[in-house]
Write a structure and sequence with these properties.
alpha/beta, 7-stranded mixed β-sheet, 9 helices, about 300 residues, 17 strands, Rossmann fold, about 30% strand, Vcp-like ATPase, Chain A, domain 2, 4-stranded antiparallel β-sheet, binds S-adenosylmethionine
């Protein structure tokens, strides 16, 4: 239940974040015993780079506390979508926080939003939708991989989020989102290999007053095909975005000192002294790097106008 409400202490069954360092973060289940390969119940001991943790020792402990490991220590934290994205079991490629923040903003997700998502994948993005739409909204998430559907449903239940989400096993490109969702969605998000096939189904599922759609494409060719399909289906304001984190380069530079008075009174542009000032001074400068690494994909976003204006 640890995702659904702020908590003070760790209860048995909680998902807990074990935070060692910024790059050493794990999600563990607060269960005192687990079954070994022979099916026998044994103490649940979690191994880390800083030694072992007897999981039963964290039950009843306050969230935010420092707990001892056999060769060091860690903090036990209540999970949130950001920490879950860092620690979740990967069943597929997943979306990360920088892209997700742009998706939530572009889809105008807010408490009460009815959202359709496909595919569910590992449920990374779904957890952010669920935080943003509660307490009155609902997430309908679809995947055509049966085991991923089951696992995602189990995770949502164990995180205390089950009442705000339905996971459906379906090929949305072939079969759409179902007649029961016709005219229901405020927003649709697609993370699929052939998203353009799901776009006509998305139009059916969106509210009469229109709504927002976003599709994640790893390559520009796919986002091109999405743009064409969006245009054919009557979407407007189609925008293709890429979220890149730009780290400013800060360094001390020798910068020429311009004598502005001197420049003002010079007659010709070609005067040597104007072009090459003699004095230089050290400054702390900042500039953008010439290229930015970290491509994940393109976010194609668009608006479906109200029915009377399509
Ligand atoms: C990259 S994963 C999605 C990851 C997810 N956005 C996350 O953050 O965890 C893509 C998912 O789409 C599913 N998928 C692919 N084609 C599909 C289709 N036609 N209908 C439903 N699901 C589909 C795959 O099974 C896979 O789980």
């Amino acid at each position: 239940m640890s995702f659904s409400q702020p908590k003070t202490t760790i209860d048995e069954g909680d998902t807990v974040i074990l935070y060692l360092t910024v790059t050493n973060v794990y999600a563990i289940e607060a269960v005192p015993q687990i079954k070994n390969k022979k099916g026998e119940l044994i103490d649940n001991v979690f191994q880390t780079n800083f030694g072992a943790l007897k999981v039963k020792d964290i039950i009843g402990v306050q969230y935010g506390s420092k707990v001892d490991l056999t060769k060091g220590w860690a903090y036990v934290l209540q999970p949130n979508p950001e920490l879950w994205t860092q620690t979740l079991p990967h069943r597929t490629q997943i979306l990360y926080t920088p892209d997700i923040s742009m998706i939530l903003y572009q889809l105008e997700i807010r408490p009460g939003s009815i959202v359709i998502e496909s595919g569910t994948g590992s449920g990374s993005l779904s957890h952010y939708f669920l935080r943003a739409i509660r307490p009155h909204g609902f997430l309908h998430t679809f995947d055509f991989h049966e085991e991923r559907v089951q696992k995602a449903q189990e995770e949502f239940e164990s995180h205390g989020l089950g009442e705000f989400v339905k996971v459906t096993h379906r090929d949305v490109c072939e079969n759409g989102f179902g007649a029961d969702l016709d005219g229901k969605a405020d927003a649709v998000f697609l993370d699929l290999p052939v998203p353009q096939l799901a776009i006509p189904h998305a139009v059916k599922a969106m509210k009469e007053q229109g709504g927002r759609l976003c599709s994640f494409s790893p390559c520009i060719e796919q986002s091109g095909r999405v743009c064409e399909a969006l245009e054919q289906q009557g979407f407007v304001d189609i925008v293709n975005l890429e979220v890149l984190q730009l780290e400013e380069v800060v360094r001390v530079k020798n910068v020429p000192v311009m004598n502005l008075e001197f420049v003002k009174h010079k007659k010709t542009e070609s005067d040597k002294e104007t072009k090459t000032p003699k004095e230089t001074k050290k400054y702390v400068t900042s500039s953008a790097p010439s290229s930015v690494a970290g491509h994940t994909g393109f976010l194609t976003v668009a608006e479906l106008p109200p029915l009377f204006a399509r």
